[in-house]
Design brief:
The complex is a heterodimer of chains A (519) and B (412). By secondary structure, chain A is of the alpha/beta class. Chain A folds into two domains: 9-244, 3-Layer(aba) Sandwich (Rossmann fold); 261-340 and 426-508, P-loop containing nucleotide triphosphate hydrolases (Rossmann fold). Chain A has helices spanning 49-56, 79-84, 102-107, 121-134, 150-163, 180-195, 207-213, 236-244, 303-311, 333-338, 348-352, 359-363, 381-394, 411-423, 441-456, 468-474, 497-506, and strands spanning 9-20, 23-34, 38-43, 64-69, 72-74, 87-90, 168-172, 199-204, 216-221, 224-229, 262-272, 278-288, 292-296, 318-323, 326-327, 341-344, 374-375, 378-379, 429-433, 460-465, 477-482, 485-491. In chain A, helix 14 runs parallel beside helix 15. Chain B is mainly α. Helices cover 71% and strands 1% of the residues of chain B. Chain B contains 19 helices and two strands. Chain B has helices at 4-50, 59-62, 64-77, 83-87, 91-94, 102-126, 134-151, 157-186, 190-210, 242-259, 261-271, 273-278, 283-310, 321-331, 336-360, 366-379, 381-384, 401-404, 407-410; strands at residues 233-235, 239-240. Chain B has a two-stranded antiparallel sheet. Chain B is globular. The two termini of chain B are 39 Å apart. Classes of the chains: A alpha/beta (519), B mainly alpha (412). Chain A binds chain B through residues 21, 311, 313, 332-335, 337, 343, 345, 350-357, 361, 365-366, 368-369, 374, 377-379, 381, and chain B through 259-262, 264, 267-268, 271-272, 274-280, 392, 399.
Chain lengths: 519, 412
């Protein structure tokens, strides 16, 4: 109606303020999105990116500010209202039904009806294939989504948005689960979408990606916009400093390792996943004292089961695990813990923390039964709280007190609680499964430094990560896990990113075929 | 701005407000559930009265719910203190008369088994176990007390009482332990096994009351009398010493849960079984242990009730204590200090029901209706929490959310 904004702006958010009890999540945020633009939204966890997108998607009502779509002020009442106005969100965790076909997933909620009762499946399929072709990729509309690779599933998510004739596409950390090759493919797709007039908000905390894909970059810190940059005029270091508010060392100098004798020796290890499928198919691995061995691999190639079998959470079906000169196969987690093994689980909400418990109880989760935290069967609350306060100080856990429920802390601080518990003693072996997943650069830097300090103190470190960059940056030696096996071992100083990425995707076989992606 | 003198009381005011806010978040769901249940109960009273032929819809009828609840209160509180009259607006309407402590004591007598069995069910909830079998554990605990109490010869009374109580607790512990063992070894869900064991317990009662434990010479199927093991009556007609056993059990169970390492393990397994497994807690062992303690408490409830009140058990013995204990545990958020007032509330309703029937003519069963509606509001608390002022409120169920909650509660 009004001509408040120039017509080239697909979206304008002005002075968005959203308060939650005790925090101002968004404090007068301005954000505009041009037509055909890829606009990256960068910020640490808890900076307010999610709140801002929730406001845009109608999941949160702003306390102040206005939203203009194509220059027209709108009130977005909820997700369905947002979708009707051409806003679509692709979440980090896909919202797909695995047992339904691609077509069924895409039309779900926006069904094209042949008549009041039946779906016009043929028409839907035709539109989907046409859409995919227009943007230069192929997809089998009849394939069950559960059988597709993660990268293909993401394309289904994007097709879902395109099918709804979205004009503003919001992607929340779209590359978190992709291999480097898949990331390149999705970037190519996004560029084609943008040149076709689609406006894209790209949320990420990976700086180099943002520099590569975005037309403009807006950085948010503590609920405020602290800067908008053009990729050509900025650097990773500049962006990181904006994000964190201080100078950040993006790549930790890990120095030289001085490995001694083998601490962890895994031979011929086999294990099954929860569904009984053999996902670890004979792994041989050696980690020496004073070195970091990184395991790269696309999620779901048996890394989690391997780690769980080593740490005693999963019984190996075959093979042995040795710690120094002792056979520790099948030892309980507690016995390994008492033998100097530390473990940071991939899913801190599942194995790492009890979210409804106070911080101090989580810090003694593996030691609550021994002195000084217990005398006989009695808990020593004073000792537990005192130790917790020391850990909070030492590991820079940002919390109002030691007694707050851990679930109320940010992801980075939750992970610091796990790290404080597992690192703060003499360790022989440290096993890290995705230790920085979902964390912001400040927390990642902190945790990486701690890992290197443990290595330099003589611990053997096994680092599993789906973030190839993390593995490359941290590891003295790199193993690539594919299909339940370690398919290659490389020296950390000379490893080539593209080669490792290819090994992650194909397992090193020349003919990729359909087996490139694990089921 | 930075003047210290001005900001300190301010800050204290804020922190007091925060404590008040926290207390409200914790109490809101139980308190609102009780109030709404009483309101629905009032509607039920009116609706059922109107259905009686010849009833006129007039002011007297509209005052009926107030008279009924007034009588319920008088019956449960008695009127030992004049100030109690001041507390109830309806006093003049019903005329809380008397001056005896009987109703007050009866409230505690009724609450005693609810406290003990409620502690047991609440302990299970803390460990993530839904023990529906307090009923069977209660019955068998009572039978255990009868068995030991009646088979002891002459001896010191105190020995007989202690042995009978221990027997009740052990039998209850064994009975619930079966469900725990089945869960630990085969994964059989405790909801199913404990319900089934309730029926077995009932069958054992009728067999024992007419067979091995039958009172010689009695034409009825009834068990022998506990004789010396009967609990001494301290006040009123049946204010037995078991009241104190229940009251002492509250801090003991609280201490166990929150101050011992085993209690920590129980709470940890209930809150996150997988993290507990990594922490070196063996969930299977703990499942059996927790069920046994929970059953022990329910068995003790049965023993105390029997030794304190009826002293022998007819085959037709009927009670709802085991199921009421679930309401008590939910109302008390599985916390011992919440279970105590919850059990007293339900005990008071049981104690006052008779007077309500006599004075207001409202059937005593209304108490069951109100209690059932409290339970409905508690379990459907995600609806309550949509009310203004209750948005920050915690679910009334504590750690049991995972079992009784569904996707509906996620949307809050």
């Amino acid at each position: 109606m009004t001509t408040a904004g120039p017509p080239t702006l697909a979206l304008e958010m002005r002075g968005i303020t959203k308060r939650y009890p005790g925090v101002v999540a968004n404090d007068g945020i301005d954000l505009d999105l041009r037509r055909g633009e890829i606009h990256a939204l960068l910020g640490e966890n808890g900076a307010g990116k999610t709140t801002l997108m929730n406001v845009l998607y109608g999941l949160a009502t702003p306390d102040a500010g206005e939203i203009l779509i194509n220059g027209e002020a709108v009130r977005i009442a909820g997700p369905s209202d947002a979708i009707a106005r051409g806003i679509c969100m692709v979440h980090q965790h896909f919202m797909l039904v695995p047992v339904l076909s691609v077509t069924e997933n895409i039309v779900l909620g926006a069904e094209t009806m042949a008549n009041p009762i039946f779906l016009d499946r043929r028409e839907a399929e035709r539109r989907i294939v046409a859409l995919a072709e227009r943007f230069g990729f192929q997809i089998d509309p009849d394939a069950k989504v559960g059988t597709l690779s993660v990268g293909q599933q993401q394309r289904v998510e994007i097709l879902k948005a395109l099918y709804r004739e979205t004009r503003i596409l919001v992607l929340d950390e779209p590359t978190a689960v992709l291999t480097p090759q898949e990331t390149e493919e999705i970037f190519a797709l996004l560029r084609r979408l943008a040149s076709g007039g689609q406006s894209i908000i790209f949320i990420s905390h990976k700086l180099y990606e943002v520099l590569e894909i975005a037309d403009r970059i807006t950085v948010i810190r503590r609920g405020r916009v602290v800067g908008t940059r053009l990729p050509s005029e900025t650097t990773e270091d500049d962006l990181a400093e904006l994000m964190v508010g201080r100078e950040v060392q993006l790549t930790v100098d890990r120095g030289d390792s001085h490995p001694a004798g083998p601490t962890l020796v895994v031979s011929g290890l086999q294990a099954r996943d929860d569904r009984g499928h053999e996902t670890v198919k004979g792994v041989d691995l050696e980690v020496r004292a004073g070195e970091i061995v990184g395991i790269a691999g696309v999620a779901g190639n048996g890394q989690d089961e391997l780690v769980e079998a080593i740490i005693g959470l999963r019984t190996p079906t075959k093979g042995t695990v040795r710690l120094g000169d002792r056979d520790v196969t099948g030892w309980s987690p507690r016995r390994l813990n008492e033998s100097g093994v530390g473990y940071v689980p991939a899913d801190r909400h599942r194995f790492g923390l009890i979210l409804s418990f106070p911080l101090y109880d989580n810090l003694v989760l593996t030691s609550y039964y021994r002195p000084p935290f217990a005398k006989g069967f009695l808990r020593q609350d004073d000792a537990i709280v005192t130790a917790a306060e020391a850990s909070i100080e030492k590991y820079d856990i940002r919390t109002p007190s030691a007694s707050v429920t851990v679930g109320t802390l940010s992801g980075g601080n939750q992970q610091k609680v796990v790290v404080a518990r597992e690192f703060d003693r003499d360790l022989r072996l440290l096993i890290l499964d995705q230790p920085t997943r979902g964390l912001d650069v400040g927390s990642i830097e902190f945790i990486h430094r701690r890992i290197i300090a443990q290595r330099d103190a003589g611990a053997a470190v096994l680092l599993v990560s789906a973030e190839l960059d993390e593995v490359l940056e941290m590891s003295d030696r790199i193993g690539v896990m594919f299909g339940g096996r370690i398919v290659a071992l490389r020296d950390g100083r000379t490893a080539d990113k593209n080669e490792i990425g290819l090994l992650m995707a194909t397992g090193g076989r020349t003919s990729t075929g359909g087996s490139a992606v694990p089921a | 701005m930075s003047d210290g003198g001005a900001t300190v009381p301010n800050r204290r005011g804020r922190s007091m407000r925060r404590i008040g806010r926290h207390a409200w978040d914790v109490l809101a769901v139980p308190v609102v559930s009780i109030i709404l249940a009483l309101l629905v109960g009032a509607v039920v009273i009116l609706a059922t009265s109107i259905l009686v032929p010849g009833t006129k819809l007039d002011a007297t009828l509209l005052g009926l719910p107030l008279r009924a609840y007034g009588a319920l209160f008088c019956g449960s509180a008695g009127s030992p203190l004049p100030s109690f009259h001041l507390l109830i607006v309806t006093g003049p309407l019903v005329g809380c008369s008397g001056g005896s402590w009987d109703g007050f004591i009866e409230t505690f007598v009724q609450a005693t088994p609810l406290i003990l069995a409620g502690l047991g069910v609440g302990l299970g909830f803390k460990a993530g176990l839904f023990n529906i079998g307090a009923q069977g554990q209660f019955l068998l605990g009572a039978l255990g007390a009868v068995w030991i109490g009646s088979s002891l010869g002459t001896g010191p009374v105190i020995v007989a009482i202690v042995l009978a109580l221990i027997a009740g607790a052990l039998v209850g512990a064994f009975w619930a332990g079966i469900a725990g063992f089945l869960k630990a070894t085969s994964g059989a869900h405790e909801v199913v096994t404990t319900i089934m064991l309730n029926y077995v317990a009932l069958a054992m009662l009728s067999w024992l009351a007419s067979g091995p434990l039958h009172q010689p010479g009695s034409p009825q199927p009834v068990t022998t009398d506990v004789g010396d093991a009967a609990l001494p009556i301290l006040f009123g007609p049946d204010g037995h010493v078991g009241i104190f056993i229940a009251l002492v059990a509250v801090p003991i169970v609280w201490f166990f849960l929150f101050r011992t390492t085993k209690g920590f393990e129980i709470r940890a397994v209930g809150a996150n079984p997988e993290a507990s497994r990594y922490a070196g807690i063996r969930p299977k062992v703990l499942t059996v242990l927790t069920m046994a303690i929970a059953g022990g408490l329910a068995g003790l409830a049965g023993a105390v009730n029997l030794l304190g009140i009826s002293h022998q058990m007819p085959a037709s013995f009927s009670t709802t204590v085991g199921f009421d204990a679930i309401t008590v545990a939910l109302l008390g958020r599985s916390n011992p200090w919440g279970i105590l007032p919850a059990a007293l509330l339900l005990g008071a309703m049981r104690a006052g029901a008779a007077l309500m029937q006599i004075q207001a003519g409202v059937p005593a069963e209304l108490v069951d209706v109100v209690q059932a509606i409290i339970l409905l509001f508690l379990v459907a608390n995600s609806l309550l929490r949509k009310l203004p002022g209750l948005r920050g409120a915690r679910s009334g169920l504590g750690t049991t959310d995972t079992m009784t909650g569904s996707y509906g509660s996620e949307t809050a």
